[in-house]
């Protein structure tokens, strides 16, 4: 069996725009707000606060975008990962559900404006997201999603078989749905661009500065590293799935689920004319997902979850990904070579929407993005900034909760759910008399 680290071969680290020049924290400094974690959530929070005249220091254990912000597949679809909108309303209650739905469904407006305003070079295109349907049950879900998201103002529509083949270049789908406001980008370039923007607005960013302590002092909080500290009135922990220490038991609020991403060689112009001809992001519609899109060089960037040998045996995993791509697009005649392969980690919890925890007076933490990182992390900065600026808890778009550990079944629940969804899809596809994809 092949074994590899998360950074065996990341396309984003090979192609991303340069990171800003930063240094570790090596002294004791003061700030109005100290933010722990330089991913999308932490950096957009810092950016918002700095624009409001707040003194902000960001502490990052590694480098800007090191975690999920730099390892994800680069899809930017402003929807929710698992639950339907009616389910979210029931689960979260009002007014929290409507506030969060409004933030999430307009998140790409925020992403697009930050990229434009700060001239972030990150391969941003906004050509839409398409989820295909391979059996009638999946098509019914597509109809429901279109109805739900259209009702809250999203630009979505149902696609018939002929339409979806024209958009995707795949003859396999019986229909599907399209979210026109979705986009894709180089996620590490975007994270580094946000870091540049925050520093441009006056934020102090210290990398290679893992937080090891947090203690009350003088009505504020002293956030300590091995070589310095920040004394701030308020502190925000926004380290997500890559939380290590910093605050007791914060890393127990979620369980890690790994995802892998791979990128092919640049495909020929001939192939690109018929495979994803509109440069959209494509989801094959199965619960055991296969999501893919092009990067600026014309490489297919695809992601899946590990399951059995898949994700452990590198040669087998590459074969699975190639076979699925060729099955979806039989017109591909050139050889497929997966030049890059890397892992990321998701901070999964039951609600699959971010959780805002009240750790102590003047201290909050955010975890649980559960895999919808680019738009979600980008819009969360507005919520966290509002908290830091003194917006009453009752008026925030996330409910402040006491710190609580994720239930034990989250250790196996998401993986079991993937297997169950795969089985359901296989049964539904066979009943419809359709072909199963390879390795299904």
Automatic annotation (TrEMBL):
Residues in FAD dependent oxidoreductase domain copies: 32-387
Gene3D superfamilies to which the protein is assigned, alphabetical: D-Amino Acid Oxidase, subunit A, domain 2, FAD/NAD(P)-binding domain
Q: Which InterPro entries match?
A: FAD-dep_OxRdtase, FAD/NAD-bd_sf
What the entry lists under Pfam families is as follows:
DAO
> What are the alphabetically sorted keywords of the record?
Oxidoreductase
GO MF terms, alphabetically ordered: oxidoreductase activity
Annotated SUPFAM superfamilies:
FAD/NAD(P)-binding domain
Q: Does the keyword Oxidoreductase apply?
A: yes
Task: State the organism named in the record.
Answer: Aureimonas glaciei
Taxonomy, superkingdom: Bacteria
Keyword Transmembrane helix part of the UniProt annotation: no
**Protein name, per record:** Oxidoreductase
Query: One GO CC term of this entry?
Result: cytoplasm
